[in-house]
């Protein structure tokens, strides 16, 4: 077995399995599938013992879990095909693996199935045309660190520090994460360069500085103006961090609430997938977002998570929402803010209608969440990245979703 699996926790160990189809041969039991004993097994049984039968087993992990590897130890290679499906609710299923296997023999078989980082509570294993007597010794599920670290810089860069003179409750912080459209590749216009009123950027020295366009201080190798993502500890240093939706978002918030200030923690990285953003994936994207946000929260209060990602996941529509649910649940727990709002933005119109449609139901899957439309937005000419006007429009739409929540919060404080 893979060395990483040998040292990882088997998420399926001792968990409940249910035989949906195939029956159970006498002296075997479904509990043997996850008992951790390689000598015990469950075997299917069908009256009349047909030569071919369908076997179907559901594993309940007990709660939403992140996983990327399944190991099946099968009795005498009885399966001709294996399908793996996942579900949050044991009702709506998405097939994530479909494999044709070699013909039956007298040798037991271990099959390792590797998938993208997936989040689910229920895993269904189906053998639709297995030979009679199909059996499982063990069904194991693992979450293995599967990527290389993407940390670029953690503590080197920063401009002049600004001391924050607002009480923590009046210094509103926002975490901006995702891929390149959150980092932004949009060019600046002349009016975008100046520092914004009562808006501050968390830099690479774990300090606050005035938010606006600027050079990456202490890094003479980059001599072009950069936007709010310029201190991301995970973005490739040679990438352009252009005019960000975080700028128009922050301006709208400070204009609406004259007694507060806004702090932006931007830690996006272009070209990244949902799988790479998961906690424990090995990329450190998640861990760096948490590290920087916790440090920033020493002087302010986290009011929202702004997420813009998906161009790399248009082929994973069926599993994306479960994975986003897991990501946000972990962020809320590790940041100690169980009710912090999440706002997600659609990708460029025409890039993937099915993905953009999926985001419109985020509120049905994740509590305290909203979505932002990308209607009437345009690219910089590459068909992927929003232009300057579109970044500004998106930022205002994010603010439109956030402001009612802030008003509600202020009303509760005055009661």
What does this structure look like?
With 415 residues, the chain is α/β, with parallel strands linked by helices. Helices cover 22% and strands 27% of the residues. The protein has helices at 3-6, 180-183, 245-256, 274-277, 285-296, 317-335, 353-359, 362-365, 388-414; strands at 16-21, 42-43, 52-74, 81-87, 94-100, 109-131, 135-142, 171-178, 199-202, 208-210, 261-266, 301-308, 342-345, 369-372. Strands 1, 2, 3, 4, 5, 6 and 7 form a 7-stranded antiparallel beta sheet that branches. It has a 7-stranded mixed beta sheet with strand order 10-9-11-8-12-13-14, sandwiched between helices.
Please outline the helices and strands:
Elements lengths: L2 H4 L9 E6 L20 E2 L8 E23 L6 E7 L6 E7 L8 E23 L3 E8 L28 E8 L1 H4 L15 E4 L5 E3 L34 H12 L4 E6 L7 H4 L7 H12 L4 E8 L8 H19 L6 E4 L7 H7 L2 H4 L3 E4 L15 H27 L1
Parallel strand pairs: 8-11, 8-12, 9-11, 12-13, 13-14
Antiparallel strand pairs: 1-3, 2-7, 3-6, 3-7, 4-5, 4-6, 9-10
Can you give me a brief rundown of this structure?
The chain is an alpha/beta fold and 415 residues long. Helix content is 22%, strand content 27%.
Low-confidence stretches: none
Helicity, as a percent range: 10-25%
Described by the principal axes of the CA atoms, the overall outline is elongated
Structural class label: alpha/beta
Rounded average pLDDT: 92
- The biggest beta sheet, please? 7 strands, antiparallel
């Amino acid at each position: 077995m893979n060395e990483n699996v040998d040292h990882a926790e088997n998420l399926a160990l001792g968990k409940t399995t249910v035989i949906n189809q195939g029956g159970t041969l006498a002296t075997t039991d479904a509990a043997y599938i996850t008992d951790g004993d390689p000598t015990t097994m469950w075997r299917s049984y069908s009256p009349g013992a047909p030569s071919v039968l369908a076997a179907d087993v559901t594993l309940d992990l007990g709660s939403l879990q992140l996983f990327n590897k399944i190991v099946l130890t099968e009795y005498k290679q009885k399966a001709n095909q294996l399908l793996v499906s996942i579900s949050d609710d044991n009702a709506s299923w998405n097939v994530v693996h479909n494999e044709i296997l070699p013909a039956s023999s007298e040798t037991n078989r271990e099959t390792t199935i590797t998938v993208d980082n997936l989040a689910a509570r229920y895993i269904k294993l189906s053998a639709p045309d297995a030979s009679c007597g199909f059996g499982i010794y063990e069904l194991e599920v693992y979450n293995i660190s599967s990527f290389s670290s993407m940390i670029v810089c953690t503590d080197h860069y920063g401009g002049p520090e600004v001391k924050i003179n607002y009480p923590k409750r009046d210094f509103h912080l926002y975490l901006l994460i995702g891929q390149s459209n959150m980092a932004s590749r949009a060019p600046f216009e002349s009016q975008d360069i100046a520092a914004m009123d009562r808006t501050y950027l968390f830099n690479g020295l774990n300090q606050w500085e005035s938010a606006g366009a600027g050079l990456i201080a202490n890094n003479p190798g980059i001599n072009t103006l950069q936007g709010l993502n310029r201190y991301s500890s995970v973005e490739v240093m040679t990438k352009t961090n252009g005019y960000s939706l975080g700028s128009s978002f922050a301006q709208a918030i400070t204009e609406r609430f004259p007694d507060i200030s806004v702090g932006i923690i931007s830690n996006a990285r272009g070209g990244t997938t949902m799988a790479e953003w998961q906690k424990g994936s090995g990329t450190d994207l998640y861990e760096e977002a948490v590290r920087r946000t916790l440090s920033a929260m020493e002087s302010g209060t986290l009011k929202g998570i702004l997420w813009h990602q998906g161009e790399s996941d248009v082929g994973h529509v069926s599993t994306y929402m479960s994975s986003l649910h897991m990501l946000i649940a972990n962020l809320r727990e590790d940041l100690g803010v169980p009710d912090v709002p999440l706002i997600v933005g659609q990708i460029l119109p025409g890039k993937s209608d099915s993905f953009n449609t999926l985001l419109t139901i985020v509120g049905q899957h994740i509590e305290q969440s909203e979505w932002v439309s990308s209607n009437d937005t345009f690219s910089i000419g590459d068909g992927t990245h929003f232009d300057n006007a579109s970044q500004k429009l998106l930022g205002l739409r994010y603010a439109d979703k956030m402001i009612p929540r802030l008003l509600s919060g202020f009303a509760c404080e005055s009661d």
